[in-house]
Amino acid sequence: MSFEIFKQQFGDLDEYVIQESTTGNRCVIVPELGAIVRQLSLRKELTLFSILKTPPTPEMLREDSKSASELLFPFASRIPQGKYRFLGKEYQLEKNETGNQNAIHGLVRKQHFQLEEQAVHSDHALLKLSYQLDSPDGYPFQVKFQVQYALHSDGRFTVDYDAVNQGTQPCPVMFGWHPYFVLGNEDVDAWKINIPSNTVVTFDDNQIPTGTANLALDKPTLLYKKAFDNAFVVSSDGAAATTELISENQHITLKITQQTGEGKFNYLVIYTPPARDCIAIEPLTANVDSFNSGDGLNILAPGHTIEGRITLKLD
To answer: Which InterPro entries match (predicted)?
Structure first.
């Protein structure tokens, strides 16, 4: 296997490419726009599939309000009215969701990440990037957040995150990744999905959790005429759970595997946009509005680190 990492321009944006020359597998990272993965291509036999949908121009990428491929930290999804209570104190985040009702998707979106490391090995290549949270409005904590992207010789693409509390007080942390997936030129109605859950989160009209219910879906279930905008409590008998996105016509399955267990990715959001040309499959370390409910929330003590991994593979 022959890996390389190089830098290129996307309009006025700098981006980094990790590429494996034998298979053509590649990923493209934009540090100055929240360290997002702008492109990801993985090979299955003779076909190289581009599996992420992101805005096609630098301008559209900057203006994107749908969080395509964004890293969501220190919280994901919605916090109603941007208000939360932590260790007896009230906090107010910016209400940045369209309509100005809620805070949504964290504080590192569109931020300029620093390149910490790039390395090429015989069986993988990686980029590590970081962003320093230093008491932003509504979140008076000091946290170093890092993400590492890697392509492996066996065809895996991995997303590893870690966060260290560099302050003197405990802080609440939650992480999620927000990719929109595509499989060739098919639309959502052609696919099946296998969701690793038996429990769906119930929402109110503001998409804030009210409880849970049993999930009554075939496994896998055909996505034809089905619309999702749901959170799920992940079921796992081991240290990981896998969501499968299946195209029977193309004989491929995209496997999105999230670490599970204490402090890991024990929740999942699935969303089908109205255009039905892609699907968002979003591993989360905690439930929607966990800053208020505490469901799955990690509380990071001073000097302590939290970490986890998401793995993508095309079979």
So the answer is: Aldose_1/G6P_1-epimerase (IPR008183), Gal_mutarotase_sf_dom (IPR011013), GH-type_carb-bd (IPR014718)
3-state DSSP assignment of residue 215: coil
* Domain assignment of residue 13, given as a range: 3-314
For residue 286, which phi and psi values (nearest 5 degrees)? -150, 170
Which pLDDT tens digits describe the chain residue by residue (315 residues)?
599 999 999 999 999 999 999 999 999 999 999 999 999 999 999 999 999 999 999 999 999 989 999 999 999 999 999 999 999 999 999 999 877 789 999 999 999 999 999 999 999 999 999 999 999 999 999 999 999 999 999 999 999 999 999 999 999 999 999 999 999 999 999 999 999 999 999 999 899 999 999 998 999 999 999 999 999 999 988 899 999 999 999 999 999 999 999 999 999 999 999 999 999 999 999 999 999 999 999 999 999 999 999 999 999
Place of tokens 């970490």: 307
Give residue 135's region: left, alpha or beta (phi > 0; psi -120 to 50): left
CB 246 within 8 A of CB 191: yes
The CA–CA distances, whole Å, from 274 to 60, 132, 210 equal 19, 35, 24
For residue 41, which of 26, 30, 31, 28 has the smallest C-alpha distance?
26
Assign residue 137 the CATH number of its domain: 2.70.98.10
- What are the φ and ψ backbone dihedral angles of 55, each rounded to 5 degrees? -55, 140
Question: How many structural domains does the chain have?
Answer: 1
Apex 68 CA angle, 130 and 150, nearest 5: 45
Q: Could you tell me if 104 and 110 are in contact, meaning their C-beta atoms sit under 8 angstroms apart?
A: no
- Please answer whether residues 161 and 286 qualify as being in contact, where contact means their C-beta atoms are separated by less than 8 angstroms: no
**What does 129-179 look like in DSSP terms, one character per residue?**
EEEEEES-TT---EEEEEEEEEEETTS-EEEEEEEEE-SSS-EEE--EEE-
